[in-house]
Amino acid sequence: MSNYPDENGRFGSYGGRYVAETLMPPILALEAAYKDVRNDPSFWADFDRFAKHYVGRPSPLYFAERLTEHGKGAKIYLKREDLNHTGAHKINNVLGQLLLAKRMGKKRIIAETGAGQHGVATATLAARLGMDCIVFMGAVDIERQKPNVFRMKLLGAEVRSVTSGTSTLKDAMNDALRDWVTHASETFYCIGTVAGPHPYPEMVRDFQAIIGRETKAQILKAENRLPDAVVACIGGGSNAMGIFHEFIDDKKVRLIGVEAAGRGVDTDEHAASLTGGAPGILHGNRTYLLQDEHGQINDAHSVSAGLDYPGIGPEHSYLHEIGRAEYVSCTDAEAVSAFQLCTKLEGIIPALESAHAIPRTLNLASKLGEHGLIIMNMSGRGDKDVNTIANLMGVEI
Amino acid sequence: MTHRIEKTFAHLNAATQSGFVAYIMGGDPDHEASLELMKALPSAGVDIIELGMPFTDPAADGPVIELAGLRALKSGTTVRSVLDMAVAFRKGNDTTPIILMGYANPIHHMGYASFATATKDAGVDGAIIVDLPPEEDGELRTAFEKHGLALIRLATPTTDDARLPKVIAGTKGFVYYVSALGITGAAKGENVAISEAVTRIRTASGLPVVVGFGVKTPAQASEVARSADAVVVGSAIVDKFHKEGKDAALDLVQKLSAATLKPNSNGK
Q1: Contact between residue B168 and residue B141 where contact means Cβ atoms under 8 Å apart
Q2: How far away is chain B from the Cα of A90, in angstroms, using its nearest Cα?
Q3: pLDDT at residue B263, as a whole number
Q4: pLDDT value of residue B267
Q5: Could you say which residues of chain A have pLDDT below 70?
Q6: Which domains occur in chain B, in start order?
Q7: Do A21 and B186 touch (CB under 8 A)?
């Protein structure tokens, strides 16, 4: 079951390689290069060395005692991806991809970013590895994520403002694909989530799977048993796939993904592709998408820029279809209040993305009762979101 | 139907000229105006019409085609309404091939089999679906073959000898050679390699090879026409139509078409 995808990049009927012919040779070359390093111990030795000394892994698995008290039920542990260098899980994937780019002899790195976390992680490792970096970012996101834009520039990256379409993450991805088509021979496209044409969904999952491997060892050490449930927020779904992957064959462990419900999944303003979308084809893969009755892509909405995407990784579509993972949602309002709750109770400022997982974790904790055990992936820290929260609270900073 | 495409190329060979393929975006800026332009294309020298179906996220297109698509969507254009343009066009013209060009999601949403039936019924001859490479177009190809429609594939400068057989297997009508790596409407690259690529693809496929991407001016069209069986111009026509209207667009079409005469021919 955890052997997916097949040789055509399929997770059941999802995934695949839906790209223009111009991009087929580069993605086939990438697939071949990834196959080479996948079983190469020296590649993983490099990966582990950077993960330990540069990213700061392993990240702690922390018993959130006060959230547990608040939930009046199951024990809640947080996997602290927020403590990674650059502040989120994103860097795990970037580390793997840029080490691969280096082996492929590519020195020009491009990336798309929404909240800026993937852009910052890419700019960071590009700086460290001496590579050129261009980050595509929607003009709307540039406006709402100014500190991250400046960080990327400090790190030597060029940030290209994308004004096509809705000027958000999906358009940044369109423009990155356009750039890649034009400069494929010297360029490595570092996709930030478990989506895109094969091999990205598989490769990004594999690089993020370090989260779940550590988590399993840590929970066995701390509690001497597997958790009842693992909960993670989902935009494209890379932090969720990263923590889920190791547990997929442990059928008793419930895997719960939390999509962004924005102003409500019954409104037009949400980003819950599985809850409110239908299967379709975008950005190289077949997966659940927000779309209208004519197959045109609908705009996503979420208070968190990192979840503001109308699609989801194809493996999630598959896990949803076969019922191995459960997908629920959380509104903007719930996430904002959970952001404040977690900050006050635990002294941990969560990323707004990660805050989406908190209300569903608390609901489940109360249902499972005091013998229950839940792990929530704290995928990133919320320093980048303080301006947004201040605005919502009507506070000027 | 592929026979309209075959007849068109047979006729062109006799006249020792390259064909001229014009791309327009269906429904840009609205149904009526784009239909008027479409109807006027054959008498302006267009041998094959590529009719764009708009999509919100056209990742292989540059800004000219993307904006045209967004205008078309704003005026309510759908796959069905683009097919209705073909129906209306066919009332006055039964010879000029119509090739739809678009992205997978709107037709995937409609269902490949329904799309194939509707395409046949509308009098359309084939389609190019940009993000369905050979690895992913099996289902649509089967549906098209049932109706004798041509699913046209793209070959690019990166399609090497190892990959070419995969690209041409099962393709019908003609092969579209994307002469420049990049997006539609971008600057045109060197032509040096075009003639070699066209010969290679024509020999391997036994089909005519049309060449596009980056051709904007009559001079460029003339250069490409030396080796190609037909020359495609899209963004330049779409841009002209948007900025200066139908007469200016048709004037450009006439000049481009005239430029596709082969140097040694005696007239078009």
Answers
A1: no
A2: 24
A3: 56
A4: 42
A5: 1-2
A6: 2-258 (3.20.20.70)
A7: no
